[in-house]
Fold:
Amino acid sequence: TTNLLFSFCTGAMDNRGFQQGSFSSFRSSSSDEDLMDVPGTAMDFSMRDDVPPLDREVEEGKSYNGGGIGSSYRIMDFLEEPIPGVGTYDDFNTIDWVREKSRDRDRHREITNKSKESTWALIHSVSDAFSGWLLMLLIGLLSGSLAGLIDISAHWMTDLKEGICTGGFWFNHEHCCWNSEHVTFEDRDKCPEWNSWSQLIISTDEGAFAYIVNYFMYVLWALLFAFLAVSLVKVFAPYACGSGIPEIKTILSGFIIRGYLGKWTLVIKTITLVLAVSSGLSLGKEGPLVHVACCCGNILCHCFNKYRKNEAKRREVLSAAAAAGVSVAFGAPIGGVLFSLEEVSYYFPLKTLWRSFFAALVAAFTLRSINPFGNSRLVLFYVEFHTPWHLFELVPFILLGIFGGLWGALFIRTNIAWCRKRKTTQLGKYPVVEVLVVTAITAILAFPNEYTRMSTSELISELFNDCGLLDSSKLCDYENHFNTSKGGELPDRPAGMGVYSAMWQLALTLILKIVITIFTFGMKIPSGLFIPSMAVGAIAGRLLGVGMEQLAYYHHDWAIFNSWCSQGADCITPGLYAMVGAAACLGGVTRMTVSLVVIMFELTGGLEYIVPLMAAAMTSKWVADALGREGIYDAHIRLNGYPFLEAKEEFAHKTLAMDVMKPRRNDPLLTVLTQDSMTVEDVETIISETTYSGFPVVVSRESQRLVGFVLRRDLIISIENARKKQDGVVSTSIIYFTEHSPPMPPYTPPTLKLRNILDLSPFTVTDLTPMEIVVDIFRKLGLRQCLITHNGRLLGIITKKDVLKHIAQMANKDPDSILFN
Structure:
């Protein structure tokens, strides 16, 4: 993968985005779209000219002037003209939530006031209010359309590994035989139009040689799909790998990763997701669909000024886009909204809840209109159960919850250990080889077993299925000792040879899925974890369900059965156990609870199964939390060193702000700017010699009385702009941050007024403030930095990165791991 120059700062103390001696070659960017075309490339701060990319064009014909007393120059006042680029953020920096929300309130107040002046201003006000809903509509339409395209393409390419339709190569196996006139219901998967590769190559489908040909073609197609996927990711969009949810959580918390939600990432992720799923690897498309939907949201934001220029408003849109992604992934609009609220969003106001619901609704409607599976459902494994569950069954459901928690904790530990090995050894330098090796092993082991050979979504559909009279699956090969059936409900029956054979195959499938998923998740291809986790749980649940069913059939006179399960009754539904097991394992890995239950409820359409799902989900979370507090996404955030401040955790240590702030005792004094006594050269020297992302402004070095806080980026852009636009600004020009210019002797160079870029209300606490309060402030206000005072005098500064390092230190973890790696 492309090497990234990943140095970042979340506050004033640690940003290395500006290299020493590079003042005149600073590069700025105003939005995520600006660097979308080259995601993952090295951060380059050089420019051919000194003008940074601009958000707002400076009006032509207006000049910026300044001057001292007795000068003919007009003082440059940034209150009159907005400085292009001021108020935006560098890559790998944290946004200032307080400032962004304040700017949006000011913008809204200005539009509201102007709306009373003219009809055109009123129309503009109405369109501004409506733009959010229009954006949600567009996100839903685009997300649903892309999800339908991915579903149809993946289904066709998965079947391509086994054969091709001679009646039309664009048909998958199922659609090919639908159009056939020579197919019976019992053999509905066999039709003359569908030819396996052995039939095409050697004209027969019988014998050992035909089996070898089909085996070879299956492995060959799998390797080809995987190679194309990893190659496209490596060459065009390194950010398209993985599920994307850990990074989206980090972005929604306020961090900026330019290009991660860009055009190239969207295009490559959509293409490679189809290839990765079709290769047969143990991964799913549901997690990456959230990333795809967020890319759609981010790109469409640039059509609306309100969202293009405000990072906080854009993150509200991304929260709604994440809901739309889950909506099309599982066909669960309400579950998608709850997933965004519970799992990924950092800031989720009520307005975002409504808009998320609307976006999820539109996305689900769009996917339903496309009907990618031909079953009028949004997912392949939709199922309906009709048999009620009984109170005693809570015991096996809770056992499945325990299994899910144990599996979740085991998977997280082993997968994180493998990913850490990948990052710290030579293995990480050969992503293509790693993907091909894992794909080859998966394909070679999968082909002999029909349950591993089929796609994971089809496997889950098979496991969820409630057997009927017309089902020809081996899982439904029961011995029928009855003459009539009522209303489609079949009594519990003794298992036939097909069921016993399927049990052995499913046990082998369970072992393969458990092991191979550990090595698959985290490779340099799009890879989701929802479907593999659900498959592991569904297999375990089906095995337990069939066991309970046979136990109830042969021992219906036992005390635990005789009160509710008589002979010839339909007592146990193995498909329900598979569904509960799927929920338990997914909950154990992700630690989802409410959203998980709602998603599974929407998959089944049955309210009466909510209690078993809740029992399994809570049990799996308790067991998994007892073995490790982090879910898989939080664990990957910590592994990658993303600056994510978890809002759900409590800080229980008795430390003070003075224990964390910088400078520490015996450190050099805090670098500050004075309000009216420093020249342009003084400020440029400080910028060149330090790497801080901002500077406190004080009345004087002697008093250290705080005036405000100014960002390094805003300083650089403003000074560069003044040198170009304002006549007479030289290195000896005085910079002042006061309302009125200081008295200057005659014939001095023009002064430079920078009060407009000064934050006059930086957040401050005293040095004796407990750190638990400081941590809470950073979490709830989304601060970048907090200034520390003592008796009104500036003492030091705490950045978000300092807080994260301190939390890691208190947890006996490596504090230096808190870096964007």
Remarks:
- The first helix runs from residue 97 to 114.
